[in-house]
Amino acid sequence: MATTSIEWTDKTWNPITGCTKISEGCKHCYANVMTNRLRGMNNPKYSQGFKVTLHPNDLLEPTKWRKPSMVFVCSMSDLFHKDIPFDFIDSVFNVIRDTPQHIYQILTKRAERMNLYFKERAIPSNAWVGVTVENKKTKYRMNYIRDLGAEVKFISCEPLLEDLGAMNLTGINWIIVGGESGVQARPMKEEWVLNIKEQAKTNHIPFFFKQWGTWGIDGIRRNKKANGKLLDGIIIQEMPVQNNKKLII
User: How far apart are CA 75 and CA 15, in angstroms?
Assistant: First the structure.
């Protein structure tokens, strides 16, 4: 299904499924859990489990969507995984270029490989590129996107696992923050979130607080829906501005 409950996008597009874990943010991967569930339901797309699998028959899916949409690319994988050939990634970006009515959000934990890919390729104007920054150890990933020629470069601090301290936000255009969900979820503290929010404000960067997750602002474990998404008593879900137009989900 292309529809999604992810609040910062409209649709998901998965011409690739499966991945491998490379950092602490991957420990309780939601895509892995969902893949196992779909495989158990005999969904043929997930018959290989969480093994990296290319789905060329799904490449043209966005061409069938008439309504302009925000599209999260590879929500069930990582487009820049080492097992995905650059020529298949080229095919993904060819579709992105051919569907300028959509905006595509590409998020990776493999910042180095994404940087390498774009050294000899232009980024389509309707593609946003981002990296996951879940702890201090992964802040280096921002260095690989600062100078890329994307309209929007963003970081996703989800799951946020510790206070990130001071950040160099040069070249960053959007920040998403969220807590972890699930049975094994790790807590997120309010001061960690507020630290990022204040740095975003200082640097005039839109800030999107997605959710508290399994652990609430009070440190109590609940259903993530019950914990909600209020920060400082309000919902803060700002989006970037592109071509002088504020983009609203």
Answer: 10
Query: Would you say residue 2 lies in a domain?
Result: no
Answer whether residue 3 is part of any domain.
Answer: no
d(CA 156, CA 71): 16
What's the Cα-to-Cα distance from 220 to each of 127, 153, 157, 188, 193, rounded to whole Å?
38, 34, 21, 11, 17
- Domain of 102 in residue numbering reads as 11-246
Full pLDDT tens readout for the chain, 249 residues: 578 989 999 999 999 999 999 999 999 999 999 999 999 999 999 999 999 999 999 999 999 999 999 999 999 999 999 999 999 999 999 999 999 999 999 999 999 999 999 999 999 999 999 999 999 999 999 999 999 999 999 999 999 999 999 999 999 999 999 999 999 999 999 999 999 999 999 999 999 999 999 999 999 999 999 999 999 999 999 999 865 454 543
CA distance 174 to 172: 6
